[in-house]
Write a structure and sequence with these properties.
Shape: elongated
Radius of gyration: 21 Å
Number of domains: 2
Low-confidence stretches: none
Number of strands: 0
């Protein structure tokens, strides 16, 4: 497959689009969800353009390349977001779900529908916690600290209550950060201790 000037321009634009998409995941603001929706439309349109103009082999290649592009760009996007916002952020995987639950409540949907959504989230959490607990570094910390998977679930709740939902999985999966979280949980500190912990995790400037 020959990379013509048009294809080279498209690949560069595709790479830029991937970076903006990932960066938006780390940014904050009420328009973030709208920007994400707009970017999704642009991504679909660009994918269709690649198939129509350069054929299915190139179109398929661009779609497949999207995933390694976004993975490779995450560290850069995280640093740019940190510098832009002045504090550390992560990807809040449940932001869209919370919005959906809020919409269900406002629409007057049944309690059963809302609870079914919550149950699905809880099952997903349990699977993710089990995967994290099975990693060697975290498993060693759990043994040293006499922490069970159930205790790990409580730590997840603590992080979400503290407003750290976007960093929760990242913290739990990092042995060093997990130790600091356990120490904070066991300190029994009040609101001031909570603020201090959040400020340290967020790396507030």
């Amino acid at each position: 497959m020959v990379l013509s000037p048009g294809r080279i321009v498209f690949v560069l634009a595709w790479l830029l689009l991937a970076f903006v998409f990932v960066l938006n995941m780390y940014l904050r603001g009420r328009f973030r969800a709208h920007i994400e929706a707009l970017l999704c439309v642009v991504i679909i349109a660009a994918s269709a353009l690649a198939f129509l103009v350069w054929g299915w082999p190139f179109g398929l290649l661009t779609v497949v390349a999207w995933f390694p592009f976004t993975i490779a760009l995450k560290p850069i996007a995280r640093k740019v977001a940190h510098r832009t916002l002045g504090y550390r952020t992560g990807v809040d995987h449940y932001a869209a779900e919370r919005d959906r639950q809020s919409l269900l409540s406002r629409r007057g949907d049944s309690l059963e529908q809302i609870m079914a959504t919550a149950d699905g989230r809880r099952q997903t959490d349990e699977l993710q916690l089990a995967r994290i607990a099975a990693t060697p570094g975290v498993a060693a910390i759990l043994r040293e600290q006499s922490i069970s998977t159930g205790d790990l679930s409580e730590l997840l709740v603590t992080l979400r209550i503290a407003g750290l939902a976007d960093l929760a999985w990242e913290i739990l999966a990092d042995p060093n950060e997990l130790v600091r979280l356990i120490e904070f949980q066991r300190s029994g500190g009040g609101r001031d201790a909570m603020y201090e912990y959040v400020a340290r995790v967020r790396d507030l400037r």
